[in-house]
Design goal:
TPK, alpha/beta, globular
Length: 218
């Protein structure tokens, strides 16, 4: 059983900055400051430099959307990966894992085109299976993949949604609408729940995703 305290500030081994909507919110700025390493997708570099003057450990991508002047100005190394079978987010996560950086936070993975957002979200289970403890952040909440039993320490009133990536049994306790060994056959069916206890216990036979909102509902 794994316990995740969502009330404590998370310090990732690596922060991956993707080319979606990169917000100037307090949590994004904190992660940029405290992450041990930073990997930036090439298309996100310009926006990243608007938020921080910290030099990334690596800028990575296929090179079609990076400004060489930006790379030269900050002295950041650049890795060009031309293969098109994976997107730049996956290239960045793969790079981080190859360095042994397994505790990974991702920002900028949502927003803009919906197909990019959905694709990035449902890549999280693949990263989990590759050995990453990965968290996706936005100003609206945090999303993580999990399997087996996980206990979330969080604040009551937060919204919680579950997404069954595979049609396998799941359970949830400490929420407004608890369930036991339920098989959900559509992605929306376990969404829009609410945390009612400070410790929420989730279980899934297969890899699933949970989302916990930043805001609380009275």
């Amino acid at each position: 059983m794994k316990t995740i305290n969502l009330c404590l500030p998370y310090i990732p081994t690596a922060l991956v900055v993707a080319h979606g909507d990169l917000y100037e919110d307090a949590e994004t700025l904190r992660l940029i400051e405290v992450a041990q390493h930073i990997v930036v997708c090439d298309g996100a570099l310009e926006r990243y430099l608007e938020l921080s003057d910290r030099c990334p450990d690596m800028v990575i991508g296929d090179g079609d959307s990076v400004n060489p002047a930006d790379l030269e100005r900050i002295g950041a190394p650049f890795t060009k990966v031309e293969e098109q079978e994976t997107n730049d987010l996956t290239k960045a996560v793969t790079y981080a894992l190859a360095q042994g950086w397994h505790e990974i936070a991702i920002v900028g993975a949502t927003g803009r085109r919906e197909d990019h957002t959905l694709g990035n979200i449902f890549l999280l289970p693949d990263y989990y299976k590759s050995g990453a403890e990965v968290r996706l952040y936005s100003p609206f909440g945090i999303m993580m993949p999990f399997c087996g039993t996980v206990v979330l320490e969080t604040e009551m009133g937060r919204e919680l949604s579950l997404f069954a990536v595979e049609p396998k049994p799941m359970s949830a306790r400490g929420v407004a609408y608890p369930f036991e060994h339920r098989v959900f056959t559509a992605l929306w069916q376990a969404t829009l729940n609410q945390v009612t206890q400070s410790r929420v216990e989730l279980w899934s036979e297969g890899v699933a995703l949970f989302f916990v909102s930043t805001e609380k509902r009275n």
